[in-house]
């Protein structure tokens, strides 16, 4: 006999036949016994709102499957969970160090000096470890954008987002670390693009764009010269500008010739590039970029885009939002069960046009809510300074 329960009614010892995700009535096969409270927490984290259980206690085949299918999303024993505030303090230092390391990487690449493979691998490991301890902390920092630092910011942000997304998808930690390293390196060839092109205040000409496109092959040459030859890293460097309809570059390959890894990299690369500050335009709101990815389903893997949106949330952490009580807040922790009700930190009073003492709120417990997403630059708010003041 089958019975449908809410996720909050699920108990250790029950046998799950199907799971049902938020905002859909479709069942997803995910069978097995619930052997620990951790399994229930992981299912909640993945957006499961209802389960279908088998009431017959004697049905125990595949009893370990549900544990196995969710285990890859769990923190490893070596990386115990930390609070957001604790990890945010560490993440600010890590992001600053990453900025220095990646800036040096690009500088050395531009003048032909040897790179430092070991330091990049260590950085990838540290980013992965931080996200395993707390998935929100360092991800918040990817929303702090400075156009003067775009090249290395983009590399670091892609590394953070690819790492978090890959862990969300359940990929193994060692694979995720290598993907994170690949993301740090994916645009390294752009170090050889003339600075006049990279810093141009207008749209590029066709000739300038042809030079920019060479960064892919330049990056592969640099990476191989320095010993970054793993298939994962090479795939990310070669194919991050390819599109599923064959309209990308440098080879114009399409569809089943593109790996899942290259499709993930393409989505994250475009998301961070479009939300970033450029010399010739302001960064776009995450919501606008996510709509762009959804609209262009012929270019980007539609299933992965949907998963990426579920991972990020409607209002990604680090975003500035306007509240119904005429205040501005930063999104601090996402909520995959109720995406419109994340945890926030109020920082600004719109009635009096001034900063307020930061205060934390869980929107599942408040009468006010989010009205809209906002650009910090529209209010002359320096998110970098605000977040560092919060940490300090």
From TrEMBL:
InterPro entries: DUF3391 (IPR021812), HD/PDEase_dom (IPR003607), HD_GYP_dom (IPR037522)
Domain HD-GYP per the UniProt entry, residue ranges: 129-324
SUPFAM superfamilies: HD-domain/PDEase-like
Superkingdom per UniProt: Bacteria
Any Pfam family matching the protein: HD_5
Region (Disordered): 59-86
PANTHER family: CYCLIC DI-GMP PHOSPHODIESTERASE PA4108, CYCLIC DI-GMP PHOSPHODIESTERASE PA4108-RELATED
Protein known as: Phosphodiesterase
Species of the source: Thalassotalea insulae
């Amino acid at each position: 006999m089958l019975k449908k329960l809410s996720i909050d009614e699920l108990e250790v010892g029950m046998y799950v036949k199907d799971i049902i995700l938020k905002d859909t009535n479709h069942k997803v096969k995910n069978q097995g016994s619930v052997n620990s409270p951790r399994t229930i927490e992981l299912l909640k984290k993945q957006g499961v709102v209802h389960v279908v259980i088998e009431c017959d206690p004697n049905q125990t085949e595949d009893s370990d499957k549900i544990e196995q299918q969710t285990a890859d999303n769990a923190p490893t024993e070596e990386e115990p969970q930390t609070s957001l505030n604790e990890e945010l303090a560490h993440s600010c230092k890590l992001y600053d160090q990453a900025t220095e390391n990646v800036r040096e990487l690009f500088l050395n690449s531009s003048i032909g000096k040897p790179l430092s493979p070991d330091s990049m691998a260590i950085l990838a490991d540290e980013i992965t470890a931080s996200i395993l301890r707390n998935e929100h902390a360092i991800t918040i920092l990817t929303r702090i954008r400075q156009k003067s630092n775009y090249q290395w910011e983009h590399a670091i942000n892609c590394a953070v987002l690819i790492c978090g997304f890959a862990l969300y998808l359940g990929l193994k930690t060692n694979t995720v670390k290598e993907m994170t390293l690949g993301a740090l390196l994916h645009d390294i060839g752009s170090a050889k693009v003339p600075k006049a092109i990279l810093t141009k205040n207008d749209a590029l000409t066709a000739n300038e764009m042809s030079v920019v496109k060479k960064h892919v092959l330049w990056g592969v040459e640099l990476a191989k010269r320095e010993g970054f030859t793993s298939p994962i890293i090479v795939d990310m460097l070669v194919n991050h500008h390819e599109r599923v309809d064959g309209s990308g570059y440098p080879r114009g390959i399409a569809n089943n010739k593109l790996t899942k890894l290259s499709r993930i990299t393409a989505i994250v690369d475009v998301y961070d590039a479009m939300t970033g500050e450029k010399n010739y335009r302001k960064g776009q709101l995450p919501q606008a970029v996510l709509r762009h990815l959804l609209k262009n389903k012929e270019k980007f893997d539609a299933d992965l885009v949907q998963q990426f949106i579920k991972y990020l949330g409607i209002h990604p952490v680090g975003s500035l939002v306007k509240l119904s009580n005429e205040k501005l807040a930063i999104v601090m922790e996402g909520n995959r069960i109720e995406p419109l009700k994340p945890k926030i930190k109020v920082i600004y009073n719109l009635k009096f046009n001034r900063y307020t003492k930061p205060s934390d709120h869980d929107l599942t417990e408040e009468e006010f809510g989010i009205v809209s997403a906002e650009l910090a630059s529209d209010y002359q708010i320096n998110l970098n300074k605000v977040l560092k003041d919060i940490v300090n």
